[in-house]
């Protein structure tokens, strides 16, 4: 509530887990994918909650002392897009070969 200008504020009385669940339940639509920086139990909980609310999550793991910063998440997204394009090209080539058989 600190310095908010919105007239719509909802306080969640509960543990940190309750706050994470409230955020996932309200922001993640069924079928949407989120990228989760995971370095322990909290990342795993976000993954479990996203599945519970029919979303998908992709875990980016790091060691317990590491940091999952925005640079790591952006690099992961770039890498994932490249892999997706390569898979698409391979499927097209495989389909072309199968058509010749």
Distance between the termini: 66 Å
Number of domains: 2
Major sheet: 2 strands, parallel
Enumerate how many helices there are, as a single number. 3
Low-confidence stretches: none
- Main sheet: strand order: 1-2
* Structural class assignment: mainly alpha
Shape: elongated
- Report the average pLDDT across residues: 84
Percent of residues in helices comes to: 40-55%
Radius of gyration: 19 Å
Please sum up the structure shown.
This protein is mainly alpha-helical. 54% of the residues lie in helices and 12% in strands. The longest helix is centred in the C-terminal third of the chain and has 31 residues, at 70-100.
Please tell me about this protein's structure.
This protein has about 100 residues and is mainly α. The protein has two domains: about 1-65, no CATH class; about 70-100. Helices cover about 55% and strands about 10% of the residues. The protein has three helices and two strands. The chain has helices at about 15-25, 40-50, 70-100; strands spanning about 35-40, 55-60. It has a two-stranded parallel sheet with strand order 1-2.
Descriptive terms for the model:
101 residues, 3 helices, 2 strands, elongated
How is the secondary structure organized here?
Blueprint lengths: L15 H12 L5 E6 L2 H12 L3 E6 L8 H31 L1
Parallel strand pairs: 1-2
């Amino acid at each position: 509530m600190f310095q908010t200008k919105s007239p719509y504020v909802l306080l969640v009385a509960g543990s940190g887990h309750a706050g994470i669940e409230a955020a996932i339940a309200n922001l993640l639509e069924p079928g949407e994918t989120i990228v989760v920086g995971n370095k322990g139990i909290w990342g795993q909980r976000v993954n479990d909650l996203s599945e519970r609310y029919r979303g998908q999550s992709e875990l980016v793991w790091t060691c317990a002392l590491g940091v999952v910063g925005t640079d790591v998440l952006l690099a992961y997204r770039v890498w994932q897009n490249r892999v997706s394009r390569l898979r698409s090209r391979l499927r097209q080539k495989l389909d072309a070969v199968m058509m010749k058989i």
